[in-house]
UniProtKB/TrEMBL annotation:
PANTHER family: CYANAMIDE HYDRATASE DDI2-RELATED (PTHR35569:SF1). This is Uncharacterized protein. It comes from the Eukaryota.
Length: 105
């Protein structure tokens, strides 16, 4: 019998705004999303309460650093990778410098 990923990850019967935002991703992939955004100013896109709720339920666990390490490895191994179009140094710096993520890392 297939498990219910929404229940497995502790989402409640009456979803909060955060749960409404992430539940479709959890159901599709079976895992909570690693992050809402990587480099954008969150308040313009997602309400701060939603960001707080999601990060409370699904901690980032230093996700930005892990993502940047993986990105740098990809660029080193595949200099033709699409991520190089975002800037080999600029994109990782933007991820690590995201002031909205620092609070939750």
């Amino acid at each position: 019998m297939a498990s219910d990923p929404v229940r497995e990850y502790g989402l409640s019967a009456v979803p909060s705004s955060a749960e409404k935002l992430i539940a479709p991703a959890v159901q599709r992939r079976g895992t909570p999303p690693a992050a809402l955004v990587s480099t954008t100013p969150v308040p313009r896109l997602v309400h701060p309460d939603t960001v707080r709720d999601v990060n409370h339920r699904f901690p980032r666990l230093r996700w930005s650093g892990c993502f940047v390490d993986t990105l740098r490895q990809e660029i080193r191994l595949k200099p033709w990778a699409h991520s190089t179009t975002l800037g080999e140094e600029e994109f990782p710096a933007k991820i690590l410098g995201n002031p909205y993520a620092v609070e939750y890392e």
